């Protein structure tokens, strides 16, 4: 699966730069930072931005920024899952199972 390949590449990338050694607690803070940046991007798309000194972005630029921030959030989730030795495929299955059970889907 492509997500597992990316996770392994990401782990190697982080280890080469000595970023991997941070604890899950610190990594969670990085995740929260990325979620904040994602929230700011979604706000700009949905409501616009009126911050002084900030240049307006085209819809294409905003979409690219959205993809970048979602990818950053995903990367932090993948690193956290590795830190706790959780299989990403199992997380996906668990998510689907929980939602199907909760909403009585087969």
Automatic annotation (TrEMBL):
Pfam families: MazG. Residues 29-102 form the NTP pyrophosphohydrolase MazG-like domain. It comes from the Bacteria. CDD domains: NTP-PPase. Gene3D superfamilies: MazG-like (1.10.287.1080). InterPro entries: MazG-like_dom (IPR004518), MazG-related_YvdC (IPR011411), YpjD/YvdC (IPR047046). This is MazG-like family protein. The lineage of its organism: Bacteria, Bacillati, Bacillota, Bacilli, Lactobacillales.
């Amino acid at each position: 699966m492509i997500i597992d390949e990316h996770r392994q590449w990401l782990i190697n990338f982080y280890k080469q730069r000595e970023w991997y050694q941070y604890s899950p607690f610190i990594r969670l803070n990085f995740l929260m930072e990325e979620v904040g940046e994602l929230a700011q991007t979604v706000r700009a798309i949905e409501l616009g931005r009126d911050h002084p000194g900030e240049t307006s972005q085209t819809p294409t630029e905003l979409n690219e920024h959205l993809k970048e921030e979602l990818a950053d959030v995903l990367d932090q989730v993948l690193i956290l899952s590795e830190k706790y030795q959780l299989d990403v495929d199992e997380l996906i299955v668990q998510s689907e199972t929980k939602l199907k059970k909760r909403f009585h889907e087969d």
